[in-house]
Design goal:
heterodimer, A: 182 residues, alpha/beta, 6 helices, 7 strands, globular, B: 391 residues, Rossmann fold, 2 domains, 7-stranded mixed sheet
């Protein structure tokens, strides 16, 4: 089972992403959970959302405290929220940022596996908006191998209709362009 | 055939109710139930189901509306949470006394104060004596299945009572997870049309909810009690029928690795699956622990509980509500009462936990079992403790 914690801000679509990811993983024959951090949410305030994906039925219903992967949708949260809290020693940290790995490592005092991509830059170019939630799904799939990129197509088309292709393009670019630093 | 899909559980519950040929729904939005109300109103507005969605200004009106509609012979549905359920409270015994087969989802949430929107069972417990059939579910599949079966149970001529399905708020309602959604054809084959015993109609006048003073009130209360007790047979029949048709079976009391257990833990609702993982961990290191899941809360399954707890030495009853100044948690006092006349009874430990959304991880269930097994002087038995409370 892979457990992923997403960090974003209210309105950036972290909850939408975990839902799309869970729905797609289930459609691909896997077992999955997607859920928000329970409670009130405000636009712009830090939020977390969670994904579990497994090959067998998932029984656990408590929160995720020791994720395998942390995905930071908004790098301005670094320093405000302890994004690496509980991350497993062999876990992976994915950050949406144009910054260098050295800058992120220093800011977080983090030495583990790091994967960086400028998701917001890609989203701007591909979709014309600085909303990187679907873009970063591509990054997550590359880093984790949870499922193939194609498996997201149906859920993205169902959710976004006319603008689905732009989302898929952005997702593909993040998948191709993310750099992993061990 | 049913289709395996991933969907948010609250939305799936609305979808499932949408398959049940309801005539009307009156649902007032309240977190964490709101997604049921929203999706059901979408289904009506989009013409996907042919039903009346009555937009009410409160839960009191929602329950009043479904009572009126059910009396008129409509298959009627509502859903609520927490303060909304408290606001419905005075109408709940009226619905059952009038023998109206209303069904209701309760997205369980803590009752104020202080204001809290997260999950526990403090909303349903004060409704215990309302004369409703009351069931609990532990995952999305069960929420769907029970929501559909509720209509068939409620409307059976030998039952004619309202049913509430308790679905833990957030932990279940806001979870995207996999399940099988029955097809319309399957639900149509399972659920016959609602044939009311009597309806409110100007051409054929009847009185419902009549006045009764001391000369009849006791008899009516006894009749209501008998109706609820007798409903169990129908509940079991309907669950059996479901198992035959869909392959998923349900029992009033379900167990996991309980047969040879020295210590049993009892849960209700969504905590059951997490507790099951704790049992696996304990078994892994040779501790004979098992789990009991109480699904049917009313009518209370006395005989099944007694049978399951017959040989165990220690029992942990978990409660997600408390009777303040009373004997502890409401489930605890019910279980104790059920076992009082038994010749051999387990020592019973009551842990009150998971209040107002406080998360309970696998390790904490393990900790409870370890603590109870370490209690060689049995000092903590027969009393209650707030698990994990900061003091």
């Amino acid at each position: 089972m892979i457990e992923v914690r997403w960090h974003g801000r209210g309105g950036q679509g972290a909850v939408t992403s975990v839902e799309l990811l869970a729905v797609s993983a289930i459609a691909a024959g896997k077992f999955a959970q997607g859920f928000p951090s329970f409670g009130p949410e405000r636009r712009g305030a830090p939020v977390a959302a969670f994904t579990r994906v497994a090959d067998k039925k998932i029984n656990v219903r408590s929160g995720i405290y020791e994720p395998d992967v942390v995905l930071v949708l908004d790098s301005s949260l670094i320093g405000l929220v302890n994004v690496t809290e509980g991350l497993k020693p062999d876990g992976k940290l994915i950050v949406n940022t144009p910054k260098s790995p050295e800058e992120i490592r220093t800011a977080l005092d983090y030495r583990g596996t790091l994967a960086l991509v400028d998701g917001t830059g890609i989203a701007r170019k591909e979709m014309g908006v600085p909303i990187a939630n679907t873009t970063m799904i591509g990054a997550l799939l590359k880093v984790t191998g949870i499922m193939k990129l194609d498996a997201m197509k149906e859920a993205i088309e169902h959710r976004f209709g006319r603008i689905a292709q732009k989302n898929l393009n952005a997702m593909k670019r993040a998948y191709d362009e993310i750099t992993i630093y061990n | 055939m049913g289709k395996r899909i991933g969907m948010e559980v609250a939305v799936a519950v609305a979808e499932a109710v949408g398959l049940c040929n309801i005539d009307m729904a009156a649902v007032y939005p309240i977190t964490p139930q709101s997604h049921i109300a929203e999706h059901l109103s979408d289904l009506v507005a989009n013409g996907q189901i042919d039903a009346e969605f009555v937009t009410v200004e409160s839960e009191h009106s929602a329950m009043s509306a479904v009572i009126g509609a059910s009396g008129a012979g409509a298959r009627s549905y509502t859903a609520t949470s927490s303060q909304g359920l408290m606001y419905m409270h005075e109408l709940l015994p009226i619905a059952s006394a009038m023998r109206l087969p209303i069904t209701m989802a309760i997205a369980n949430r803590a009752v104020s104060g202080p204001l809290n929107i997260l999950n526990d069972h403090t909303d349903i417990m004060p409704q215990r004596d309302s004369g409703w059939i009351s069931v609990f579910v532990e995952n999305g599949q069960e929420a769907i299945d029970m929501s559909i079966m509720a209509f068939k149970i409620a409307e059976h001529k030998d039952v004619m009572l309202p049913v509430n399905v308790n679905i833990d708020g957030f932990q279940l309602t806001h979870m995207v997870e996999p399940f099988e959604m029955p097809s319309q054809e399957e639900v149509d084959a399972f659920l016959p049309p609602f044939v009311p015993h009597a309806t409110l109609h100007p051409a054929k006048p009847v009185t419902m909810g009549a006045f009764a003073m001391s000369d009849y009130f006791t008899e009516i209360m006894k009749a209501k009690d008998e109706a609820l007790l007798n409903s169990k047979k129908v509940i079991l029949d309907v669950w059996d029928e479901w198992a035959k048709m869909f392959g998923r079976s349900y029992k009033p009391v379900e167990t996991y690795k309980a047969d040879d257990a020295d210590v049993l833990m009892l849960t209700m609702g969504s905590m059951g699956e997490t507790a099951q993982m704790a049992i696996d961990q304990l078994r892994g290191r040779g501790v004979k622990a098992g789990l009991v899941k109480l699904r049917l809360w009313r009518p209370f399954p006395h005989s099944e509980i007694k049978a399951v707890l017959k040989n165990v030495k220690k029992l942990i009853v978990t409660d997600r509500a408390i009777s303040f100044g009373g004997p502890g948690g409401p489930v605890f006092s019910e279980i104790k009462s059920a076992l009082y006349a038994e010749a051999s009874r387990p020592l019973i430990y009551n842990y009150i936990f998971g209040l107002g959304g406080r998360d309970v991880a696998v390790g904490e269930f393990v900790g409870m079992v370890d603590k109870v097994l370490a209690d060689t002087k049995n000092k903590a038995a027969d009393t209650y403790e707030f698990w994990g409370v900061r003091e």
